[in-house]
């Protein structure tokens, strides 16, 4: 019989470095924390450097745009790319994210970017 709860090729960090079982849990935890901090920091750095409009949920700004104001580059492809990568990194690092806000912003970016394919909406 096959045990589906065990991956035979799994190697913990402590096993990789040959650490004994007593301090192995500490090594595994440290690697978990280091990777989480690195992913969260890289996500924040991407947003700060490349697309400041990707910060936050985006719902208040989308409401402002629907009200008739123009916010340049808020719904652009660069914002879409950085927001998408930042969301993946943030969720992977364990940060709590809301479901609705970021995806409303991403959906509006997709709609705005795809509307460039049609001459009616291209100015």
Question: How does this model look, in words?
Answer:
With 123 residues, the chain is mainly alpha-helical. The radius of gyration is 21 Å and the shape is elongated. α2 (21-50) packs antiparallel against α4 (77-93) and α4 packs antiparallel against α5. The relative contact order is 0.12. It has helices at residues 13-16, 21-50, 59-66, 77-93, 100-114. The model has no long low-confidence stretch (mean pLDDT 89). The termini are far apart.
What are the SSEs and their pairings?
Elements: H1 13-16, H2 21-50, H3 59-66, H4 77-93, H5 100-114
Helix pairs in contact: 2-4, 4-5
Global shape: elongated
What are the low-pLDDT stretches, counting only 5+ consecutive residues below 50? none
In DSSP terms (H or I, runs of 4 or more residues), the helix count works out at 5
Structural class: mainly alpha
């Amino acid at each position: 019989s096959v045990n589906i709860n065990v991956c035979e090729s799994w190697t913990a960090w402590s096993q990789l470095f040959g650490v004994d079982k007593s301090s192995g849990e500490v090594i595994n935890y440290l690697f978990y924390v280091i990777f989480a901090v690195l992913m969260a920091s890289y996500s924040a750095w991407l947003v700060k450097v490349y697309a400041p409009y990707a910060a936050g949920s985006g719902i208040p700004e989308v409401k402002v745009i629907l009200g008739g104001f123009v916010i340049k580059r808020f719904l652009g492809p660069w914002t879409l790319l950085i927001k998408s990568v930042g969301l993946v990194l943030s969720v992977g690092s364990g940060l709590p994210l809301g479901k609705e806000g970021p995806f409303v912003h991403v959906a509006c970016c997709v709609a705005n970017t795809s509307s460039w394919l049609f001459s009616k909406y291209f100015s």
